[in-house]
Amino acid sequence: MGYERIATTVLWIGRANKIVLTILIALLTFGIALLDHITGPLLAVSYFYLIPIILGSLAFRLRGALSVALVCAATWVYVQILDSFDFSTPFYLVWSAAMRAAYYLSFAVLSEWLRGALVELSSLSLRDPLTKAANWRFFEEYYRTAIMRSRRGDSPLTLAFFDIDSFKSVNDKLGHAVGDDVLKTVADSVLPNIRPDDIIARLGGDEFVIALADLDFTGSEEVLARIFASVEAAESKRGHPVTFSVGAITWVEPPETLRAALDAADTLMYEVKRGGKNGRRHQSMP
Fold it and tell me: What letter does residue 194 receive in the DSSP assignment?
């Protein structure tokens, strides 16, 4: 497994339901404590406490990792006392607890540092360097995960494929620096208007796609209207004379492949262009 896949997994866990992750961390900690109690000193299992600490970092960053580390250290001490481990004097008990806490806390800090490094790597390898939107590789991974989630829960998925009308003339007349600023403004305007489970990707040139998860046709249409109102306002404020042609489809059961889904949305987008550009066509599909 390459670091790109690991980085994608890290980001996916970070976007997962926090209540579910908290329950998972609690169950793991309890399970490890129970195993530690059953096996006693014959089998060292304290290293397994590092697993919930890692999850704490991925889900809740440094504060979560440190909190889980302290809980794991306290749990370890409780199991030792429950097993009547002979610490001889209270000093040895306090010393062992402090060392265990220091070990787990140090690992929590290291885990958070590694998480941050992986996220940084993902921004280099899985995101477009100009706009910071997802690139094709990241979007492929997202789509695979999205269709699996959609089919498990019968939840819809919306793809909005769009490009910037007459973008070539912007580059030719105003220069590539202005063209780059137009592209960055698109991503900067979309990102605050989508949820953690949604995504915007730049597929190349002036072509972008937005994916909205778990929204029906009406809900996704409202979000898309808000997004493109925000994008157009931001471009206008910066003096960019641009409009957008958008083709969007909401699927109850998304196509098997990303290419098939994009081709369908792309067809709608070109219908908008043939109709005079500067518009959005949105369809619902079974």
Answer: S
